[in-house]
Each structure stands twice: as structure tokens, then as C-alpha cells.
Specification:
Chain lengths: ~250, ~425, ~500
């Protein structure tokens, strides 16, 4: 699915990612943990192609294609989805309209027929219901006036509708109550299949209880300093990053 | 020569003709200014063209007044705010050495008459008038890296004098200066100062102006400031006195990360007219300008605010903000406000806001329901209204001088 | 040259159309003088009072000077080098859509204009049995279409006809109201218009009548005798309601460089007039050559208590726009509204905004202006809110937002706020920004192309205004925004 080799990236002149190697096989969920400022969000942005992040070295292949060469929308069409740590507000842009435009753009890229407003609404309503979200979420402007939790849930709704192959969830569980956390986890679990993988950035074991990652990686100072099975997350939850950081130093 | 006293533009020109051989500095500059003034006249005066920049202010009362002589400054002098900082005292525009302190880096304009290039007589009739007739003023130079502390410049107007002081403030790189300008007086005089300011890279000027002129006086001041990279201009003007006032400030942000604050408060009553006009020009990227101007208008007074933020093509990442608010305290008061944005760069954040209204009835009621008497409650709310603009003044002594003046103004209204 | 400009160019230049031959025109000689005005008046079969009105206006105009205060520049206009009367006689258009320039049709398709309407816009000879769904002041040849609607309207007493006809058939109404909101000598262009206007609509809604349909000039400006100097007068008597649509989202084929229209609205007690405009006249090519000068005076008088006048405009066309739809709020508790989207690209110049004059107690006004500048264009909002001493308790809220696309354009905001009543409350807010990178990225991460992302964000930016448009206009206006900004991004 995803193969990252020696990836380095910087913001302006400042190097942030200093050589990331990471392979996520088909059907697997990997967790990424690490202290604040270690570069987790940066990795998500670089994978999805944000402009102000410059890739200075390394490669990323996604299902055999070179991801780094592609425009953000092409990556989205190829199946990369980033749930933003801080979802962006789009004043005046209706959520349903936004989602339909996005979904149809991706469908077009796959040579599929576009959905009309009615078909789309049926689909979207089913998803909101499944995710136990209020219906009016679709009517409101994208993330405008949403609470922190609502924004995160809106990201999950988008993921559910766009059905990506690779979902990168950037602290989507932060600031959520227990029910909402379950919704996020269910959202990911519902997509699980041999052709779906996920990269889950999180600080909490709770989400991982629901998701049970195949691998857990610790990112610090722009490098993956340790990888392990699900038990690594539990260990970190207990003892913090200090030991891992010290061991890596 | 006839004994008829000429008024208006003709009067000023006649005065120039009479004095020109005795005025200091470059005679050619003055002659050119006189020509500009002859063509432009006094804005809104009898003969002048209509100019957009003077849409809301007419200088007809100035044009019709007779300016001929000085009187005693003793009474006004007694009303000077007490402050423990070196001061330069000018009476009717002339430096009074015996009332002034030693200030390092100071030269009087009379001794060193150099016209700067910032104020342009060909563009601004009041600058032309000043350039034509200026004979004294304060030239202050702060050397690189020096903190010059607080300096006071005091102007006392008397009788029916007309004076046109020329001030120059030059802050070299990394220097710091706080200036408190106080303008007071007794009589129907005209005070028409022009101040040219240059702020070097990383330098910081705090420029507080207290205008509490005599009720019948005219105060027309023009300030031009240029700020190099990383330099800061913090300007605050409190306008309380004068029959007709114009405070015009032009600030140009020349180097990256320069910053300007141009706050003001005008508290007017009776038939006062005060016009606060400012232009901030962003010529470099990553600069920042902030402006909060408040008008509190009672009686038949008229407040004017004109403020323009100009952003040049190259001034990307500009952050410009401007807020002007007016409180109308009387049914006969008037506010005219024209906040303008002129923007040629795309990656900018510029905004302005304006509000006009009276004191908030609910707030007033809330205070009174807690036992605060009506007039006190009003005073409290007016002071609260001014806080945002005043907050720029961080020097506590100066701040308390300004606050006392505001309180005194309020007491005069209540009486 | 961008694709849009190219299409527009083909629309404008005319030759590509292949059916511009054999024009038989009833053409007055160039120049403006009393004789020409007499000629216009006699061609229109006008009564003597109308001619006098025109001549008086002409006398006033001669003494006036072109205004210079707007932020627009253009070479001097030689008013003696124009035809002031040019009524084309019947001429043959293309017989079917097959004969129409495919580029133009592509443009119409992008705008989502229904097939039938595309044909009308492209000048295909109309089938007299076809009926559009909107009442159209149909000056073009189809007499039957116009009369059908006129019957429905006349049943409720609504008069909707060309102004020249109203001058003859309803002289008392015209005499009473014409020039009562925009006086002859109000400004240079209104005086010119008063002297030489040849066309426009007249609408009269009697007491208590809610006009049964939206009234529209939708197709009329496409008629080949497009008035260069349109004159529109709308009167809503007490309790009357009317919604009037002006313009068209398709680029207008037009040889007239100078347009100087005057629109007057009058609303009595409890009356409501909603006036919506979508203006997409030829903006000139990518180098700023050609294009319409659109110098318009639009003003409404809320004379009655609780009367309401609402202006909504989407301005994307014209090389120069000089336009300030205004409200004089005389009646107690009267309401004025101005909702505007102005888009400028290439070398377009727009100086547009509104005036809200508060006279009546409790009068309220709302101004929402969205300016979008791209290319090398300049886009200025200029507005006046004036509260007179009589307007106790008046309210105004103004929101002006500008969006810059690219670093060669300019966005300017010039509001004037004048208040002389302490109990009035005025609030003004303005912002200028560009489309945020993070918004663009967010959309693209979800699969939208950069251009679609820009369109989505721009439409969101204009939402408050677009929602004020009648449904069928709103959809087209949205598409029009997209087409106008095509090629401006990236
Ligand atoms: N726009 C930016 N400009 C400069 N530095 C940035 C920017 N965004 C993030 N950084 C820096 O990059 C580093 C990694 O940030 P981030 O990827 O957000 O960390 P994490 O998500 O792991 O908390 C931090 O040191 C942060 O301060
Ligand atoms: Mg992060």
C-alpha cells in the first residue's frame, strides 16, 4: 500500500522530517505516536501534498505509484485521505455541496458517473445516521461554527463518503468524548478491508483499544525511533516517551 | 501701505512678503511653498477648490480670522501639566530658552533651519503655509542605540498670533524616544505645526500629543513619519480644545517588519470641529499597522475621521487594522467618517470597522441599578469607551496626565 | 488570452457570427444637439411635454462636467461621435442553432442556459408560439409573447410595458414620477440619459397587488435595438409587491461602447420592490481593448411607511462599471438593502456601491458588498450611509469584503459614514484578503481541482448575496462567477 523511504522534508528553511522509513502493507492499520512537535502532522501533510512543505529527499510509493509527483487532488483521487488535526473552515460553503463536489470529482477521476443531488443526499444521510451525527451537519457551512468534536466527526463523515484506500487520521480522537471516540473508531473499522490501510496519529491508547493497530511507531525529532506491536502503545501510555527517547539517543 | 489687515490666504502671503528676507533656511524652498500656497489657498476657505481630502472640514473660520499679535503666556503656563521630564517650551511658536531645559541632541529650527523631504508643500496647502512661514521649532536627533527617555515639547499660544512651528524628530537605528507634545494657550490664535519624523531601523518612537488649546483657537497640525525596517511608531493624539482642529498624520512603512500605531481620541462639545485624518502607507512586506480612533461628541460639535490604509504591490503579508468609533452625546452633534482601504497586494490581511451610536442604554441601566448615579455612570462608560485607544500609552505618568484631562473635560460638560 | 476572453471576443467582434450582414438601420446622424433630441422624440411619437423634458435635460447636461471622482480611467469620450438613435429595422438572425458560433454555444452550455433560451440569446429567430416562463418586456418582434403576459398582468391591474409606450398611454403616471427620484440634473450621465433615452421598462403595481410573476428584461437587452440609454421606472403603490429581474448571464453582443441607464423606483406604504441585476456585458479583451462603459444611476425612494427596496446585483461584465444603486429612506420604518457581488478580471474597472440616505424614523438599511479582483483589474466599493437628524432610531449595517486573486490587481474600499442623530446606530466592517492557502489545500485534499476549489470558495464568499437572488438567477449567477474567473487562478 504505502512505502516511505528516507523521506526528508522541510518548512521554509527548517528541516522537519529527517529520514522516515515506513511501510504500511495492504489491509493494515499503523499507529504513529510521538511527542508534540515531532513531525507527525508534517508527515500527513507531506503525504497529501501540501504546498508549503518541501520534500528534500526520499521517496513515497503508493500502490506502486510515485505519490510525491502528484497534485493534492490527484492523490485524493488515488485514494489518499487526510483527516486534518485542525479541520479548515469554509465560510459560505455548504457541507453537503462540498462533499458532493469532492465525491463527484473523485468519481470522475475513476471514470464513474457523478451523483446528482438526490442520490448524494440519500447516501450522505445514510452515513450521518450510521455515524450517529445530526442531519443538520450536512446543511451547515463546512466546519464553520462547529465545535472541536463536531469538526472531527465531520472529518470522519467525509472519510466514510469518500471511501479512501489510505486514511491518515491526525489526532482525530483528541478532544472527543467517549461516544464520539467510538464513532471515529467505527468509521475506520467499517472501511477495513484488504485494500484499505490507515495511518493513525494519536496520543491515546483508548482509540487503539478499538482499532487494534498492526504496528505502532514512535516519531521523534523527525525520525521513527522505535516500532513495535500494539503492546508498544500500552507501554508508552504507562511510562511516557522519556525512556524511548533516551534509548534512541 | 494701507492699514487694512488682510485675512485668509492673502494675509498669510502678505506676511510672507514682509518677512521673507529675515526667515531662516533655504529661501528657494520657501518661495516654492509660497507659490503652492498661492495656488491652493486655504482648504474650504473662500477661494479654494474643493479637495476630497478636505471634504468634511472647511477652514473658512481660519480664513476669516484676523491674526496680528501676541499676549501674555503666564496664565496658560500655569495650566501646564506637571511632569518630571525635560521640556522645550515655545510661546507663539518661539523657543523660550528661559523656560526650557537642556535636551541632548536638540537644536532649534531657528538655528538649524533644514526642511525635510517628507512634508510636501506642493501636495498639502497647510504644509505649504507652514513651509512658507516657519521660523522656529524643535529638531531632535537621537543617536543610534540611545534611549533618550521622555522629552516634552510644549506650545503655548496667545492672543491673535499665528505661528507655524517646524519640528523634526530623527531617531537613528535602535534608538528610543518618548515625546509628549502639549499644546495649550489663551486667545484666538492659529497653531499650524508640521512635524517630520524619521525612525531608523529597529528604533522606537512613542509620540503622545495632548491638544488642549484655547476654545477659540485653531489647531492645524500635520505629521509625516517614515519608518525603516523593524522600527515602530506609536502615536496617540488626544484632542480636547480648539475651535477648528485638523490632525493629519501620514505614516510610511519603508522596511520589512516596521510597525505603526496611530491612535486618537477627540472629545468635543459646543461648536467645536475636529478632524482626524490619517494615511498609512505600506511600502514593504511584513509590516503591521494598527489604528483605533474614538470620537466623543457633545453639543453641536462635529467630529471627522478619515483614515486610509494603502498597501503597495510589493507589501505582501501586510497586516492592517483600523477601527473608528463615535459616541454621539447630543442630538445636534455630527460624525463624518471615511475609513478607506486601497490595496494592491494580494497576500494581505486588512480590515477596518466603524461604529456610530450613543451610550448603551442597557449598560447605563445596569450601572444605575447598582447604585451608580447617572452622570457618574455616563462618565464611566465614556472612559471605558476611550480605553482601547488609550491603551497604547504605556508610560504611566503620561497616561495619568491624559486621564486627568479627560476627567476635567467631562466635569466641564457636566457643569 | 484566456478562454473566457476568447469566447467573449468572438461574441463581441460580430464577424464570426456570419449573420451580421444586410443590416438595415434607421440611424440618426452622429452627434448630440436639439435636432437629434427632437428626432428621437418624434420617432417615439412623444407628446410635447416629453420633448420639453428632454430639452431641459439637454440644457442642463451641456453645463455639467463628467464626474472625475470614481477610481476609473478611460480616454475622453467624444459625445458628438456617437449615434443617439439607431433603431435597426427587422433583420434576419440565424434560422437555427446550427448557424450559431459553436464557441458561443459552448459558453451558454457552461452557464447552463436551457437550450431554448440559448437560441433566443444567440439571436435565433424566435418561434412566436414558444413562451418563456418569465414575463418579459419583449421589445423584440414577438408581439404575441408580450401580449400573453400582458393579459395576465392586466387582470390584476399591473402595467408592464416599454417606457416609450407608457409615455403615450399613461402620461399622468409618467409625468408624476419620471425624474422624481433621479432629478434631471442629478449627475452628468443622468442628465444625458434624460435627454436621449430611447428605451426601458415601465412598471406600475396598483395598491395592494402582489405582482403574480417576476418581471424581467431578461431577453430584452439582447434585442438588437438595445437601448444605450435605458430608462426604467417602477412604481409600487401602497401594499404592492414586485420582483424585477434585469439582465442576463450570457455575454451581451453589443456595439455600443457607452451605456448610461437611469432606473427609478418608488415604493409607497408597505410596498416592496426587489430589483435584481445580473450584468455580464462585454468586458473588453485580455489586453483591455474594447468593452462597455456602464455608467448607471439607480435610485429608489422608499416614500411610504414600512416600504422596502432591495437591490441585488451581480456585476461581472463591462470594461468600466460606475454604479451606485441607492435608497432614499423617507418613510418611517422603511428598509433599504443592497447586496452586491462585483467581479473584475483582466483590465476591468469597477467603482460600485450604494447610498443609503436615512430620513425616516426607524429606517433601516443593510449593505453587503463582495468584491473579487483578479488579473490587472481594479475593484472599488464606494458607499455612503447618511443619517439625517430626523432619522431617530435608524440602523445601518455594512459588510464589505474584498478578495484578491493574483498580485496585479487592486481592491479598494471607500465608505462614507455621516450621522447626525445620536439614537441611530451605524456599523461598518470591511476586510480584504486572498483565498487562504489552507482552504485551497483542504478542498484539494478532498479531490477538488484547484479551479473547482477556487470556485467553491468564491461562491461561499458570495453566498450572502447570491441567496438574495431569485432562484433561477442565483444558479446562473453562480456559474457565471466560475466562468468569469476561469483562467485567473494558478
Ligand atoms: N508553518 C510552519 N512554519 C514553521 N514551522 C512549523 C510550521 N508548522 C509546523 N512547524 C514546526 O514543525 C515541527 C513539527 O510540527 P508538527 O508536524 O505539527 O508536529 P506534531 O504534529 O508532531 O505535533 C514543529 O517544530 C513545529 O513547530
Ligand atoms: Mg500534530
Amino acid at each position: 500500500m504505502l512505502e516511505i523511504r528516507g523521506l526528508t522534508a522541510s518548512i521554509g528553511e527548517k528541516p522537519i522530517l529527517k529520514g522516515i522509513d515506513l511501510v504500511v502493507p495492504d489491509g493494515e492499520v499503523h499507529a504513529i505516536m510521538g511527542p508534540n512537535g515531532s513531525g507527525k502532522s508534517t508527515l500527513g501533510y507531506v503525504l497529501s501534498g501540501r504546498d508549503d512543505y518541501t520534500v528534500t529527499g526520499g521517496s513515497v510509493t503508493f500502490n506502486g505509484i510515485d505519490l510525491l509527483d502528484m497534485e493534492p487532488e490527484a492523490r485524493a483521487a488515488a485514494g489518499v485521505f487526510l483527516a486534518f488535526q485542525a479541520p479548515i473552515e469554509l465560510p459560505g460553503v455548504n457541507n453537503a455541496n462540498f462533499l458532493r463536489t469532492a465525491l463527484n470529482a473523485i468519481r470522475r477521476a475513476h471514470g464513474e458517473s457523478e451523483l446528482d443531488a438526490i442520490q448524494f443526499l440519500k447516501l450522505a444521510r445514510a452515513e450521518t445516521k450510521r455515524l450517529a451525527m445530526p442531519d443538520d451537519m450536512l446543511k451547515r457551512n463546512v466546519n464553520v461554527g462547529f465545535s472541536g468534536g463536531e469538526k472531527k466527526r465531520n472529518e470522519v463523515l467525509q472519510m466514510a463518503l469518500l471511501r479512501p484506500k489510505l486514511a491518515i487520521l491526525d489526532e482525530t480522537d483528541s478532544g472527543l468524548d467517549i461516544d464520539a471516540l467510538k464513532i471515529v473508531a467505527d468509521g475506520v473499522n467499517a472501511l477495513r478491508s484488504p485494500t484499505f490501510s490507515a495511518l493513525v496519529v494519536t496520543h491515546h491508547q483508548r482509540l487503539l483499544d478499538h482499532l487494534v493497530p498492526n504496528r505502532v511507531h514512535v516519531l521523534a525529532h523527525g525520525r521513527i525511533i522505535r516500532s513495535g506491536g500494539p503492546e508498544l502503545a500500552k507501554e508508552l501510555e504507562k511510562s511516557g516517551y522519556a525512556d524511548v527517547l533516551a534509548a534512541a539517543a | 501701505m494701507s492699514v487694512v489687515t488682510q485675512t485668509g490666504a492673502a494675509g498669510f502671503l502678505a506676511r510672507y512678503e514682509a518677512l521673507k528676507d529675515r526667515l531662516p533656511g533655504d529661501a528657494a524652498v520657501r518661495a516654492a511653498a509660497a507659490e503652492s500656497f498661492r495656488v491652493a489657498g486655504l482648504p474650504g476657505g473662500t477661494s479654494a477648490r474643493r479637495i476630497e481630502a478636505w471634504k468634511y472640514t472647511s477652514l473658512r473660520p481660519v480664513a476669516e480670522a484676523v491674526f496680528q499679535g501676541s499676549a501674555s503666556a503666564a496664565g496658560a503656563m500655569a495650566a501646564l501639566p506637571k511632569m518630571n521630564a525635560p521640556r522645550l517650551v515655545f510661546v507663539d511658536g518661539k523657543l523660550q530658552a528661559h523656560l526650557s531645559d537642556m535636551v541632548p541632541g536638540f537644536k532649534s529650527f531657528a538655528d538649524q533651519a533644514v526642511f525635510g523631504g517628507l512634508a510636501r508643500p506642493d501636495r498639502d496647502p497647510l504644509v505649504a503655509l507652514n513651509t512658507m512661514l516657519a521660523d522656529d521649532g524643535a529638531c531632535l536627533r537621537v543617536p543610534a542605540g540611545v534611549d533618550a527617555g521622555v522629552i516634552q515639547i510644549v506650545s503655548i499660544g496667545t492672543g491673535t498670533a499665528a505661528f507655524h512651528p517646524r519640528h523634526v524628530l530623527k531617531l537613528e537605528a535602535g534608538s528610543t524616544l518618548v515625546v509628549l507634545e502639549t499644546a495649550i494657550g489663551e486667545g484666538n490664535y492659529l497653531h499650524n505645526p508640521v512635524t517630520e519624523i524619521s525612525i531608523g531601523s529597529g528604533a522606537h518612537l512613542t509620540h503622545v500629543r495632548l491638544q488642549d488649546e484655547a476654545a477659540a483657537a485653531f489647531h492645524l497640525s500635520t505629521i509625516y513619519a517614515e519608518i525603516a525596517d523593524g522600527g515602530t511608531y506609536d502615536g496617540f493624539s488626544l484632542v480636547l480644545g480648539g475651535r477648528v482642529t485638523r490632525t493629519e498624520i501620514h505614516v510610511r512603512l519603508m522596511g520589512p517588519k516596521a510597525a505603526a500605531h496611530m491612535n486618537g481620541a477627540q472629545l468635543l462639545s459646543g461648536a467645536q470641529h475636529a478632524d482626524f485624518t490619517s494615511v498609512v502607507r505600506h511600502d514593504a512586506p511584513h509590516c503591521n499597522s494598527r489604528q483605533t480612533v474614538k470620537n466623543v461628541l457633545g453639543g453641536k460639535s462635529r467630529g471627522v475621521f478619515q483614515g486610509r490604509i494603502e498597501v503597495a504591490r510589493q507589501a505582501q503579508k501586510t497586516d492592517g487594522y483600523q477601527m473608528n468609533q463615535a459616541l454621539l452625546l447630543s442630538p445636534d452633534a455630527e460624525i463624518d467618517s471615511k475609513p478607506e482601504l486601497e490595496i494592491f497586494a494580494d497576500d494581505v490581511k486588512c480590515s477596518h470597522g466603524a461604529t456610530v451610536g450613543e451610550l448603551d442604554a442597557e449598560q447605563l441601566f445596569y450601572l444605575r441599578s447598582r447604585g451608580v448615579p447617572d452622570s457618574e455612570a455616563r462618565a464611566l462608560l465614556v472612559r471605558a469607551f476611550l480605553v482601547e485607544a488609550l491603551d497604547l500609552v504605556t508610560n504611566e505618568t503620561i497616561r495619568s496626565i491624559l486621564e486627568q484631562r479627560v476627567d476635567a473635560w467631562w466635569e466641564r460638560q457636566a457643569a | 488570452m484566456s478562454a473566457t476572453a476568447e469566447i467573449l471576443d468572438s461574441v463581441q467582434s460580430g464577424y464570426k457570427w456570419g449573420f451580421e450582414t444586410d443590416i438595415e438601420m434607421d440611424l440618426a446622424p452622429k452627434g448630440l444637439n436639439e435636432d437629434i433630441i427632437r428626432l428621437i422624440s418624434s420617432r417615439k411619437d412623444e407628446p410635447a411635454w416629453m420633448l420639453e423634458y428632454r430639452l431641459k435635460a439637454f440644457t442642463a447636461w451641456k453645463q455639467m462636467a463628467e464626474p472625475e471622482w470614481a477610481r476609473v480611467t478611460h480616454p475622453p469620450i467624444d459625445y458628438q461621435d456617437l449615434h443617439y438613435y439607431a433603431a435597426p429595422k427587422k433583420k434576419a438572425g440565424p434560422k437555427s442553432l446550427d448557424e450559431v458560433d459553436p464557441e458561443l454555444l459552448k459558453m451558454y452550455e457552461k452557464l447552463g442556459i436551457p437550450l431554448k433560451e440559448r437560441a433566443i440569446l444567440a439571436g435565433v429567430e424566435p418561434d412566436p408560439n414558444e413562451r418563456p416562463q418569465i414575463a418579459v418586456d419583449a421589445v423584440f418582434d414577438s408581439v404575441s409573447v408580450a401580449t400573453t403576459f400582458r393579459e395576465t398582468l392586466s387582470k390584476v391591474g399591473v402595467i408592464f410595458c416599454p417606457i416609450s409606450e407608457a409615455v403615450r398611454d399613461h402620461p399622468d403616471l409618467v409625468k408624476q414620477y419620471l425624474g422624481s427620484v433621479v432629478p434631471v440634473a442629478d449627475n452628468y450621465f443622468s442628465a444625458l440619459n434624460a435627454a436621449v433615452f430611447t428605451d426601458g421598462s415601465f412598471v406600475y403595481i396598483p395598491k395592494g397587488v402582489r405582482c403574480p410573476m417576476e418581471l424581467s428584461t431578461y431577453f430584452r437587452i439582447n434585442a438588437r435595438n438595445t437601448g444605450q440609454f435605458e430608462r426604467t421606472l417602477i412604481i409600487a403603490e401602497a401594499g404592492a409587491h414586485v420582483s424585477y429581474l434585469e439582465g442576463c448571464t450570457a455575454p451581451q453582443r453589443d456595439e455600443n461602447q457607452l451605456h448610461a441607464a437611469v432606473v427609478e423606483l418608488i415604493a409607497m406604504d408597505d410596498a416592496t420592490i426587489k430589483y435584481s441585476t445580473v450584468q455580464n456585458w462585454y468586458p473588453g479583451d485580455a489586453d483591455g481593448k474594447g468593452g462597455i462603459y456602464n455608467f448607471v444611476t439607480k435610485r429608489g425612494a422608499c416614500r411610504g411607511e414600512r416600504s422596502k427596496i432591495s437591490w441585488t446585483q451581480v456585476e461581472t461584465g463591462s470594461a468600466i462599471t460606475w454604479k451606485y444603486p441607492s435608497c432614499v429612506l423617507i418613510g418611517e420604518d422603511s428598509v433599504g438593502e443592497f447586496y452586491s457581488v462585483a467581479v473584475t478580471t483582466n483590465h476591468q474597472q469597477a467603482d460600485t456601491g450604494t447610498k443609503m440616505i436615512h430620513i425616516g424614523k426607524g429606517s433601516r438599511s443593510t449593505i453587503v458588498s463582495k468584491g473579487i479582483s483578479a488579473g490587472r483589474s481594479n475593484n472599488t466599493y464606494r458607499g455612503l450611509v447618511r443619517i439625517l437628524p430626523s432619522a431617530a432610531g435608524a440602523r445601518n449595517h455594512t459588510q464589505c469584503d474584498s478578495l484578491l486573486i493574483g498580485d496585479e490587481c487592486g481592491a479598494h474600499t471607500v465608505p462614507y459614514i455621516e450621522s447626525r442623530n445620536p439614537s441611530a446606530k451605524v456599523e461598518h466592517e470591511a476586510t480584504t484578503s486572498k483565498i487562504a492557502e489552507d482552504q485551497l489545500f483542504y478542498c484539494r485534499q478532498r479531490g477538488l481541482s484547484e479551479e473547482d476549489a477556487v470556485n467553491l470558495i468564491v461562491n461561499g464568499f458570495c453566498k450572502e448575496v447570491l441567496k438574495e437572488l431569485p432562484m433561477e438567477f442565483a444558479v446562473e449567477a453562480q456559474k457565471l462567477l466560475a466562468v468569469s474567473l476561469e483562467g485567473s487562478v494558478g
